[in-house]
Specification:
The chain is an all-alpha fold and 259 residues long. Helices cover 70% and strands 0% of the residues. α2 runs parallel beside α12.
Amino acid sequence: MFRLAQSTTTNMSSASNIDEVIDILQGIVLSETQHNSPLAFFPALYQLVTVKVKQGIDRCEFDDNTRMEQLDVRFANRYFDAYFAYKSGHPLSGSWRIVFESSEKPLLVLQHLLSGMNAHINLDLGIAAAETMKGKPIEDIQDDFNAINQILSDLTMGVQAAIGKVSPLIGLLDQWAGKSDTMLVGFSINQARDGAWKNAVTIHKSDNQADVILQRDRKISALGLSLIYPASRWVRTLLRLIGFFEKKEVRDIVQVMTG
């Protein structure tokens, strides 16, 4: 069980192995929880995912367990770079800037989670995979690439179920807004995975990777905005209603999410 009281902060801003990834995530969760900031939600979920990946590596469940750790660390460092850049006022990708700036807005817990997942899966995962396979066939990592997404998908389903304990009306989103053409109700980890894989292949094969990444960031930024500002007025009204009854204490929400 995730316990904030047992957390320790860290001065590291990047990781060199998966244990450091877990430590840095824990430090971010603790810091943001102490400030009652919803920026604690995404790293809390992310830490659960990373622990599962580490367990899989320890049990040699992946095609290449050493390479999986390298992918995991590169992937996580994309988030750390963005987080600490934002905190220090340095430039960062548009996709992540939207996530961090939205922490001041009255969003649902689910919106905060999906916003972070949008930036990290749709932008960062493809870049991390392409970097990991530099000079090697990108196709060799596809199964392990999918394995990370499966772990994330499985844990997210459990977290979404737990969110009902802090957001008693969240079920209305599926029940009443399920047919709305918005990313919020239609976000699919499987679709994000497929898009991220295509992005990884494109980056890996490109002679101008910086331009490919920039164009991808613009696209994912637009998707992120649609999570925060759904096009449907009806959905926006529904979100305000759900949010009115949602718990506001970050510590309690994190404990429920990760308990």
